[in-house]
Amino acid sequence: MSLTKTSIIVRSLSTSAATPQLVKPPIQVFGLEGRYASALYSAASKKKALDIVEKELSQFQQSIKSDIILKEFLINPTLKRSLKVDALKHVSTTTKLSPTTSNLLGLLAENGRLGKLEGVINAFKIMMAAHRGEVACEVITAKPLDQAQRQNLEAALKKFMKPNETLLLTAKVDPSLIGGMVVSIADKYVDMSVASKVKKYTELISAAV
What we know:
Radius of gyration: 21 Å
Number of strands: 4
Structural class: alpha+beta
Distance between the termini: 45 Å
Largest sheet: 4 strands, mixed
Order of helices and strands: HHHHHHHEHEEEH
């Protein structure tokens, strides 16, 4: 992450005239979305508005998904940036958004980055989950896990976590795995599926022929 670029965004999101110092999020998210989310986390943290901003952005994200007109307005590249800025200021005022959330929407509009808004919101959610000590884990299996399997898996995964952390387990099914499982926890990824082993052996055989 570019500290200089993030600091510029932090200054833009700050509601104070003083030179802001960056409050680092508990987890780093890379890319443009990560820079905006980090700056947002810093600004909201100083205002003690982390929970408020997360709630407002989650509600706005739901509006984007349910309102096609709103989504088209945000991502339409032919509309002038100034028009989007004014429209979002009106939305922020009428819906009584916090200054930090309002500043984010205005900054993205000014910079022509509203198409990245959902990515920024998702990055911010990851930071907030880490802030609460939540560890997201996704498990993909060929067949649905029964209750006993899920409990055994949760018990095994919790051994790798700190005492103050909470496991958020999401289970998905992908028959193409044939058997075994694929586990993603925090920034770690382990492929223990039969399909991956078959692919590996196939490649070894092909190389030997």
